[in-house]
Design goal:
CATH topology: Nitrilase/N-carbamoyl-D-aminoacid amidohydrolase
Number of strands: 14
Strand content: 25-35%
Number of helices: 4
Structural class: alpha/beta
Largest sheet: 8 strands, mixed
CATH architecture: 4-Layer Sandwich
Radius of gyration: 17 Å
């Protein structure tokens, strides 16, 4: 797998990131930008967009125009159709409307093809590492993003696990990588944790709109014995007998 990296977009003193999550699937996107901008959000996360289209299709152009008009970075998921193959994808438009990052789920649901790269968004104050679908269930995916320089983990369309299990998963992924982590499930639930594994409270900004302040984490400071984990990079041998 390759990892997409990029230059920092802008500086912010405290290193925290403000995320706005649009949980109301029927709300008009245009009506969200005022409360989101008023709260000072760095990035607006939108639910899955309808239909299937290429990464530079009409939805990307429309949401890029929206981002530029609001002066706000926007991220959304969609089913990407590329060379006749469907992928679950996540795209980010910068505050000037230009394409900033693109990711295809490495561990998608059945019926969708897996992506072949990992993405760390070139966006400050945090450089989010992107996770989709069943990606957060595999600790190696989050660890690879942390080693590639991610400053936070954003897991969109995560599996709708039982409440306690989802809370535990998010807190463990955050703690083991020393990075704040947010998960937004296909059932509409949002859970976040600091890099120390503590829960992060959610703030109601408007109907169907939540605010989450992710403080910077301590980073990947724990001892790691990479020579012991080389088996993770090898294809499993077929079973005999």
């Amino acid at each position: 797998m390759s990892v997409i990296l990029g230059p920092k977009q802008r500086e912010k003193g405290d290193g925290a990131v403000r995320l706005a999550v649009a949980t109301g699937t029927k709300a008009r996107v245009e009506g969200m930008t005022a409360p989101v901008a008023g709260w000072g959000a760095d990035l607006l996360l939108l639910p899955r967009q309808p239909g299937e289209e290429p990464s530079d299709g009409p939805t990307a152009r429309a949401l890029g125009d929206l981002a530029a008009a609001a002066g706000l970075a926007v991220a959304w998921t969609f089913v990407e159709r590329a060379d006749g193959v469907p992928y679950l994808a996540l795209q980010v438009a910068a505050a000037d409307g230009t394409a900033l990052a693109h990711y295809r789920a490495a561990h998608p649901d059945p019926g969708l093809a897996p992506g072949s790269w990992l993405t760390v968004v070139p966006f400050d104050p945090h450089r989010p590492g992107l996770l989709l679908a069943r990606d957060p269930l595999d600790p190696e995916t989050a660890r690879a993003l942390a080693l590639a320089g991610a400053a936070s983990l954003l897991a969109l369309e995560a599996p709708p696990l039982d409440g306690d299990l989802l809370d535990a998963l998010v807190r463990v992924r955050a703690y083991e990588n020393g990075l704040p982590c947010l998960a937004w499930t296909t059932g509409g639930r949002v859970v976040a944790a600091t890099g120390e594994g503590r829960p992060v409270p959610l703030e109601r900004l408007d109907d169907g709109l939540l605010g989450v302040l992710l403080p910077p984490g301590p980073g990947l400071a724990r001892e790691r014995r990479a020579e012991l984990f080389q088996i993770l990079a090898r294809e499993p041998e077929p079973r005999r007998g």
